[in-house]
Amino acid sequence: MLDVAKIREDFPILSREVNGKPLVYLDNGASAQKPKAVIDAINLAYSHEYANVHRGLHTLSNIATEKYEAVRAIIARFLGVADENQIILNSGTTEGINMVAYGWAMPRLQAGDEIILSVMEHHANIVPWHFLRERQGVVLKWVDTEADGSLDVQKVIDAIGPKTKLVAISHLSNVLGTKVDVKTICDAAHEQGVPVLVDGSQATVHMPVNLDEIGCDFYAITGHKLYGPSGSGAIFVHKDRLAEMRPFMGGGDMIREVSKEAVTYNDPPMKFEAGTPGIVQTIGLGVALEYMMDVGMEAIAAHEDSLSQYAQQRLTGLNWLNVQGQTPDKAAIFSFTMDGAAHAHDISTILDKKGVAVRAGHHCAGPLMDHLGVTATCRASFAMYNTTDEVDKLIEALELAHDLFA
What we know:
- It is an enzyme of class 2 (transferase).
- Belongs to the class-V pyridoxal-phosphate-dependent aminotransferase family. Csd subfamily.
- This protein has helices spanning 4-9, 36-48, 59-79, 93-105, 127-136, 153-158, 182-191, 203-206, 211-214, 239-242, 279-295, 297-316, 344-353, 366-372, 388-405, and strands at residues 17-18, 21-22, 24-25, 87-90, 114-118, 139-143, 164-170, 196-199, 218-222, 233-237, 255-258, 263-265, 321-324, 333-338, 356-357, 359-361, 377-381.
- The chain is an alpha/beta fold.
- Helix 2 (36-48) packs antiparallel against helix 11.
- The protein is globular, with a radius of gyration of 22 Å.
């Protein structure tokens, strides 16, 4: 069982006050807070061990290189990947998906070819495909969510046709908390020779993930949502797809030799890691993932599932609050609007006065907002360090907001 009180002691920021109230941080879907282990690792790297990685040969460079390169294996273990050379280090999910769009899809897809998306995708898993629509005539096929916010995977599968070249799907919605059975999608898509890209930005922080079992072709993660630093992340690329990809960016490290007449590329994954990387950010990500694995992903998932059930019960008990997405197994992410004239931004501001941090806006999910018929929502997103007491404080703050707008 997860010891939440002990975990909270590991996160220094949770002891501070905001507007004279104890901080209730419920904006984890945007970015999670950092444990002391990560903060200490970053401080150590900059204050005592910093140097550029690879080829330095001096002591500091060797230390930085060893710590940096060790993160690849940590990520592989965290994601259930046997071969760490299928892990490309980068700045996060946005870079990872763009890498696939430019390096794999752009040279392979032609006008009329189709990419299947769900309506609940984050813009990071939409805009790169719009580039291909604008520049190459690729067709985007959309699958809507159901009335309860779930995604019917059979509808995704049924959308696959002879012109489908890629399915790009979120493992877990950053707005609705909807979990998607991506393994079933992968199995069915592969039977028809269609690769699958999975946006794992939200899923990996809430539940165990095993990519060797899921069987996807691409899987993107971002470090700052995983209790790690911003500017860190990775993408898993199956070895068969790695062989098909061309480099996304050119520069140092991704080459073997460069002359006036030619260039010889490095082997994957280095082939796709151009230039000086986010050295310290990546080291911090490795520490964050080890922290999560030490706590236990099963324990984290069980705690958050319990939190989700309690929060769903409390929030749906407010008959003037409209919660988007009512699937019983949803993750602890709740987007909502309030009856009347209260705008999401106003609600968020009032909650902040009570020390409760939530996000307001479209959450980089414009097509989903259109589908839901709203322009913006408030979103309370929970993490392993949140408690039922903090759910109660959220409810108290919402009741205050409602009274003010009544």
